[in-house]
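Proteins fold reproducibly. Consider a sample protein:
=====
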Amino acid sequence: MLKRSLLAAALALLPAMPVLSQSGSDVARLDTVHGWRMADGNHMAALQITMRPGWHTYWRTPGEVGIPPQFSWRGSDNVAAVSMHWPVPETFRSNGYRSIGYEDSLILPVEVVAKSSGPIRLSGEMTFGACEEVCVPVTLPFAIDLTEAASAPHPGIDRALKNRPSGRKQGGVTAVECVLSPTRDGLSLRASVTMPILGADELAVVELPDPSVWISGGATVREGSVITTEAELVPTEKAAFAVNRSDIRITVIGDGQAVDIRGCG
């Protein structure tokens, strides 16, 4: 709980830092990439963040400290659903903490499911952290009309899609064991994954689909073929709290690779 309090206090101070305008600046810029209409009728587009050299932004889960990215799709038209395909991130160490993200730039593929055939209007805002020695929250707008004009894959989006984490089978995962125990504030989770070593500095990250549950970043330990992490799961609202093991998502990151594991067991 102390770490959550410290993070909340740090974020509370962020508005006093220089916040970039919604038109971008020399620190960060947000662009859209049209992409192509897929065979199933969905449209693969992308949001592209370009930062000043040496700056970085965060993965969908920032790690022990950081600003998680947030999206608004306000102003979109003919959009039924949107899913993002995050490429494999890097890990950064600063002041004793480890965070997860991308240095200099990020092409984030965005798959859009249309309500009906025809043009799609993708519009909204993205809020993300831009960090060097300090982090500043950046909120920038985006808007693009997606048509069927482009049918061939865009090279940048294609590279990002090919750099997505492996799945359970492809990553060589043979077992996933999750032990949940009640705590005063919520639940503690100990997750153990049997899989090949990815590198010398592996990190296992736990996620849940419910954004109202705060998840601590526990230590990752490798013993032979098993990598283990522990996390505290604390609901932000004081109410009955339970976790379905099939909803637990574990991503193991290391040496430019990652394995995305959905569910325990």
User: Anything to note?
Assistant: The radius of gyration is 19 Å. The longest strand covers residues 120-131. The chain has two domains: 19-162, 175-262. The helical segments are 2-12, 155-162.
